[in-house]
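Hey everyone, long-time lurker, first post.

I ran two proteins through the pipeline my lab uses and got sequence/structure pairs for each. Pasting them in order. The first:
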Amino acid sequence: MSVGASRRRRQILRAGRSMVLSRADLSESLTVTGYAPPPQAAQLAEGAGKAPFIAQITADETARSGYTPRSGDQLRDGLKTYTLTDASPVYDRATLCGWTLLASGGS
């Protein structure tokens, strides 16, 4: 694993919190450790209601369970539930090392 990927993984595990990723129909669910970076100044100026929720997860949990995040899945972070609008894989060379999840909602 490259230095950048190792640093990203350590940050997610150190600063992350438990989140639940599930299919929209709740047929599958998976508890993951996710890190949601704080919103940027531009997002705060536009209003938090318009800003997408961004969470980064490692591929550890998804690889073990065979779960592949996809658009339309739900992400529960504490009391809020978000709907994924995009799930982008993060690669370290040819190895899948994580996912960046973009979500909206927060109901």
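...and the second, right after it:
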Amino acid sequence: MRTYRIGDAVALLGVSADTVRRLVDGGKLTAERDELGRRIIPGPALAAYVRQVHRAEWGSTGSSARNRLSGIVPEMLLGDVSAQVEIQAGPFRVVALVSRESADELELEPGVPAVAVIKSTNVVVERP
């Protein structure tokens, strides 16, 4: 069974080490101790926590797309016909090409919140 140290869970969850420790101390996230006394989190426990926390966010959106990344627009390149929109969603950077008309209708500009909704027929999964 795969286990994660606190630092690994921090990177995967996008929260601070203190937050992970509070989740463990509060019983919201299961952890064990390794042979050196360090806290380790079983992979299935971390997966269950992520499912539980984000399940409410997965509710009906009125769309068949389920891959949604909320973030902020740090940069845009506007052309006459199209716009390149960058969204920083936590540690993830998503770049989309949309019509200039859509960008104008959504009033996209640096500093506004935006959601990248991704519907794809081809997704590549890799292991780090």
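Reply from user beta_strand_b:
Welcome! Quick read of the second one: The chain has a mean pLDDT of 88. The CA atoms of residues 31 and 41 lie 4 Å apart.
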